Amino acid sequence: MREVEVIPLNSQVGIELGETSVWHDNHLEELRKVEAVSSPFILTFNNLTYSLNRRKDLTLPSIFGRKDTVATDTPSKNKVLLNDISGEAREGEILAILGPSGSGKSTLIDALANKISKESLKGSVTMNGEALESGVLKMISAYVMQDDLLFPMLTVEETLLFSAEFRLPRSLSKSMKMERVQAVIDELGLRNAAKTLIGDEGHRGISGGERRRVSIGVDIIHDPILLFLDEPTSGLDSSCAFMVVKVLQRIARTGRIVIMSVHQPSSRVVNLLDHLIFLSQGEIVYYGSPTNLSLYLSDFGHPVPLNEDTTEFMLDLYRELESVPDGTKRITEFSKSWQRVHEKQLFCSGYSKGLGLSLGKSITARISMGKLFYGDVNSITQTLAPSKFANPLWVEIIVLIKRSLTNSKRMPKQFMLQVGGVGFVGSILGSVFWRLDKTAGGVEERIGFFVFIVTTIFFGCTDVLAIFLQDRYIFMRETAYNAYRRSSYVLYHSIIVLPTLFILSMLLASLTFSSVGLNGGYSSFLFYFFAIFSAFWAGNSLVSLVSGLVSQVMLGYIAVMPLIGVFLLFSGFFIHRDKIPSYWVWFHYVSIVKYPFQAILLNEFNNPNLCLVEGVNPNKSCLMTGLDIVRKQDATDLTKWSCLWITLAMGVLYRILFYISLLFGSKNKRK
């Protein structure tokens, strides 16, 4: 293959949204050079069919195992979401999928983006006539979700720069990554908002249309060939929707394939689209260009009235047909026959049959021209093997930490509330349990203080559940297309909380150790601090695990609150180990509350020279020692250091389980 001319990143000139001419002559010349050395990309999909199995309805007799007197056949019903969908999307064009809610728009997008398991989806999806492996598709594509999942306290430029740090290889210099970010900002028309915060409900930021464009920019920073968008205009007014689609048209004209779903676009938006697929109950009722839609409706016997919007008329028409028996069948059959006559050119592309360069060589040529952004070109050329991540694990962790710190330092209220809450609780505990005496009653009060402070720590850790879940949604979007490893996220998640836990632990230990009158000097205080820190660590890890298992904050609270309560029940405070029934004693050993509680208990009382109650006889013999309390509480099975290490180890175990939950629970794929 002949030498490829390198196109510099800044050769693309930003054009205002309102202009009709998008490209300068020099860029058109560059595109001609691109086409000269590589085949245009054509994504072809044939006979896509996807259905869901509906379970049989259960009756009370069947639940209790009783048989009905009369045997009846109740075959399971299948809900067809896609039925024999075929078409193609071309480089430089926008393919829009239209239809009312429930028509199958998002399902078709997911099918093309490999978000449906191969076992459930029938049919084929190819590019330039070759099958697309999952790893290759992740490498050359991006999927923009309907929700704008962004960190609110980052600026537009920072958001895109962090995305570039993840998606662009480490071999690129900082200046080159910034150059790419600036090019994307110009491409998306975000220059005036580049230094503005994203914002959220409590912080003023950019507009809804700008947020949507930032979401698009995050996913195109690595210059993907394929761009999928699930209703990018949803929730936007007509003006913002037009600007977003105008940006997508500009992106498509740079040599990308853009496939998007739209609910009910305006006529201005439709004029920007190249091809339309109208879906009704999972079937195609029209496939072609917007300009031929009026002719299609006339041939179907429903001409568009004068001054009526063609797209809206089409949507209203087949909504009416859906309510008529065999109405959808009639228009789908007409669509197939009409398409064979009028739209033959849609399926006559030589590239869809595999002519020109192979897929691997076409991708390699595209990478060489931009000198970006997919990493190992040789592996693509030779085997089309799935791409590796753009950066090593340690780089991903550093970038994740930097981004989190940048976002958090602009939201100090969260940290100050945590510090204030711990300070308040510590002050209350210190004043209530002030200078406990060394009597039998004082001993019981000390033990009550120990179990209360440990339990308060675990319940207090649940306040970050909502933050963890919000962070997890962003994680799922970014890892869906290999922005970084799941292991990097778990390690970052573990590291970033350590300074906060250290500060909270030191504050709580300092407020309670002296005021309660606990025994021992500096060494005893130091262990007391470590025990509190280990409890914070284990509690935070448990909440992390729950955030990886549930998708809603309320479900998380429903799961974690009773669990901590049960751990407290079996901690050894309410009922000693030797009194627990044998079939429940295992729960005593898995209780996360047991070990920090026992560690603090042993730190206070496990001293043979500690006399708590002295006799009244002349020699004043000791009637109750610290070891007597340890034996009475049945806390002789472990040393205090063993309890400390077990607590820390349980926190690590919960982090490992958190990783496993993300590994299997965040595939974001339909079955």
UniProtKB/TrEMBL annotation:
Main location as per UniProt: membrane
Species of origin: Papaver nudicaule (Iceland poppy)
Domain of life: Eukaryota
Keywords: ATP-binding, Membrane, Nucleotide-binding, Transmembrane, Transmembrane helix, Transport
Name the UniProt record assigns to this protein: ABC transporter domain-containing protein
Molecular functions per Gene Ontology: ABC-type transporter activity; ATP binding; ATP hydrolysis activity
Bilayer disposition of the protein: Multi-pass membrane protein
Gene3D superfamilies, sorted: P-loop containing nucleotide triphosphate hydrolases
Any Gene Ontology CC annotation: membrane
Coiled-coil ranges from the UniProt annotation: none
Cell location: Membrane
Residues passing through the membrane, by range: 415-435, 447-469, 490-513, 525-543, 555-575, 644-665
Residue stretches making up the ABC transporter domain: 58-306
InterPro entries noted in UniProt: AAA+_ATPase (IPR003593), ABC2_TM (IPR013525), ABC_transporter-like_ATP-bd (IPR003439), ABC_transporter-like_CS (IPR017871), ABCG_transporters (IPR050352), P-loop_NTPase (IPR027417)
